[in-house]
Design brief:
The complex is a heterodimer of chains A (136) and B (401). In chain A, 47% of the residues lie in helices and 13% in strands. In chain A, α2 packs across α3 (75-88). Chain A has a three-stranded antiparallel beta sheet with strand order 1-2-3. Chain A is globular. Chain A has a single domain (5-133), classed as Sufe protein. Chain: A (Alpha-Beta Complex), CATH 3.90.1010. Chain A has helices at 5-16, 19-31, 75-88, 93-98, 101-107, 122-133; strands at 47-48, 55-62, 65-72. With 136 residues, chain A is α+β, with helices and mostly antiparallel strands. Chain B is α/β, with parallel strands linked by helices and 401 residues long. Chain B has two domains: 8-25 and 294-400, Aspartate Aminotransferase, domain 1; 38-291, 3-Layer(aba) Sandwich (Aspartate Aminotransferase, domain 2). The longest helix of chain B has 21 residues, at 295-315. Chain B is globular and about 70 Å long. The chains are: A alpha+beta (136), B alpha/beta (401). The interface between A and B is medium-sized, with 16 and 15 residues.
Chain lengths: 136, 401
């Protein structure tokens, strides 16, 4: 299955990045691509707990296709969220359930951001997505 | 000028971490271990493990001997003398829970427990939950701006209704020594049981429980270069007799029947189940190692590193220190920069520091923050560690600003 075009672009960009500094710069740039959430969307219902920073995930389905939006008050996590959203945008629940998201971050060279001792919130967001995909 | 640590080579993990380009500045969370401890653990396991206080066979006798020798070493380290005894628990948290449960039967609705506003959760939650169980009032002693307990206010708040005072010796977030002596003296005069959480304090300087005159002093082995899974509870003899037994089973029993049993006094009566034998023996080896060091040289070394740390933080623009740290550590936030971003970039550069609420959520929140970065020092750190930290900090801030 070919990657969505935004995901392919992310993969090409991050694969070419050398060193932590460039990756950090790229993460911050990608973070700026996230469309801002309204105050209403930043409500308690959309809040993902278990993060050092505040993270919100808004999810809805159009015609059986997931549409996500996300925000955080920390810049690097915004970048991680943007990289997540380009990979999952428009997937069906079945597709989302089959998707290996840790594998996706490994491909980007960002697998360490998912280690269990990290409290940056990415793991919590992935869990929330898995629940949504499972219809929970 | 380079400030080496003469003791760095005694801690083999430091060299390993260095090869992995890791600079360890999180010793307030847990410390690296001296070779002497690793040798003691290997020796114990390689020469025959055995349970303690149970068997008459030779391995059992040797293990019990080594175990009890560690108890004596811990008592000597605190200068307990004949004033009190050492109880081994499964951690400092466990020791504080032991006290909260052990003292419960002596407390009645409407009475008060006093803790400070800077307590680690381990010295807050057991008392908070005890207060809820018994309908007690939990009194929070406020802080002055420098990060020490506001002594005038505290002396007002500790009164005849105060049955327990439980305070930290050295704050794990603010790095401030607390005015223990006047607090303890006053609380004792009011008839309160006094508990000192020495988890951080024990690591920096020698402390004398006989002179402090506290009823209980608690610390955690793993923060004092010892093995984990082990807490040390010093109790004054008389205070220990006021504790009710709280965990049951193993050699804490005197006579057991199907319907009734009787229990041993301290220390064994409070060591239910098989204790962490290897860890206790290991702590003994660590204490021997620490006792062999020049205490003044260690204090000087740590103080010089701490000055270096504070100077470096103060020299940088936009850094806000939490309180006025006096020893061991410093916590800070940077204006306009999210802690999570900063800690992310420090981690990328191999700097092991801690970001978050440091198990003192009410304190961090009361400072109007949701977290902070903490740099903490140990005797094996040297000035190069701090240089690595500062250059990583500068790089991170340059990227983020």
């Amino acid at each position: 299955m070919s990657l969505p075009s935004g995901a392919q672009e992310a993969l090409d960009t991050f694969a070419a990045a050398s060193g932590w500094e460039q990756r950090a710069r790229l993460l911050m740039q990608w973070g700026e691509r996230l469309a801002p959430l309204t105050d209403e969307e930043k409500g308690e219902d959309n809040r993902v707990h278990g993060c050092e920073s505040q993270v919100w995930l808004v999810a809805r389905q159009d015609d059986g296709r997931w549409r996500f939006a996300a925000a955080s008050d920390a810049r690097l996590i915004r970048g991680l969220l943007a990289l997540l959203l380009v990979r999952v945008e428009g997937l069906s629940s079945a597709e989302l359930q089959q998707l290996d998201l840790p594998g996706w971050f490994n491909q980007l060279g960002l697998g360490r951001q998912l280690s269990p001792s990290r409290s940056n919130g990415l793991n919590a967001v992935l869990q929330r997505m898995a629940q949504l995909a499972a219809g929970g | 000028m380079f400030q080496p640590s003469p003791w760095r080579a005694d801690f083999p993990a430091i060299a390993t971490l260095q090869r992995q380009h890791q600079t360890y500045l999180d010793s307030a969370a847990t410390t690296q271990k001296p070779q002497a401890l690793l040798d003691a653990l290997t020796h114990y396991y390689a020469h025959g493990a055995a349970n303690v206080h149970r068997a008459q066979h030779l391995p059992g006798a040797l293990a019990t001997q080594a175990f009890e020798a560690s108890r004596d070493k811990a008592a000597a380290w605190l200068n307990a003398g004949s004033n009190g005894q050492i109880v081994f628990t499964h951690g400092a948290t466990s020791a504080l829970n032991l006290l909260a449960y052990g003292l419960e039967h002596r407390l009645e609705a409407g009475e008060e427990i006093a803790v400070s506003a800077l307590e680690h959760h381990a010295n807050l939650l057991p008392w908070q939950q005890l207060a809820k169980r018994r309908g007690l009032k939990l009194v929070i002693l406020p802080l002055a701006d420098n990060g020490q307990i506001d002594l005038d206010a505290a002396l007002q708040l500790i009164g005849p209704r105060t049955r327990v005072l439980a305070v930290s010796q050295l704050s794990n977030v603010l790095g401030t020594w607390q005015p223990l002596q006047p607090l303890l003296d006053h609380a004792r005069a009011q008839g309160a049981v006094t508990v000192v959480d020495g988890a951080q304090g024990i690591v920096h300087g020698r402390h004398d429980v006989s002179r402090l005159g506290c009823d209980f002093y608690v610390f955690s082995s793993h923060k004092l270069y010892g093995p984990d899974g082990l807490g040390v509870l010093y109790g004054r003899n008389e205070a220990l007799t006021r504790l009710r037994h709280w965990q049951f089973g193993g050699e804490m029993v005197q006579l057991a029947g199907y319907q009734e049993s009787s229990f041993r006094p301290a220390p064994l009566g409070f060591e239910a189940g098989t204790p962490p034998i290897a860890s206790v023996i290991g702590l003994g080896a660590t204490l021997d190692y620490l006792a062999s060091l020049d205490a003044n040289a260690v204090t000087e070394h740590e103080a010089a590193l701490h000055r270096h740390l504070l100077r470096g933080l103060n020299d940088r623009e936009g850094i806000r220190l939490l309180g006025a740290p006096q020893a061991a550590l410093a916590s800070f936030v940077v204006e306009g920069v999210h802690n999570a971003d900063l800690s992310h970039l420090l981690t990328e550069q191999g700097i092991a520091v801690r970001a978050g609420h440091h198990c003192a959520m009410p304190l961090v929140n009361s400072l109007g923050l949701d977290g902070a970065i903490r740099v903490s020092l140990a005797l094996y750190n040297d000035s190069d560690d701090l240089q690595h930290f500062f250059s990583a900090l500068d790089q991170a801030l340059e990227l983020l600003r």
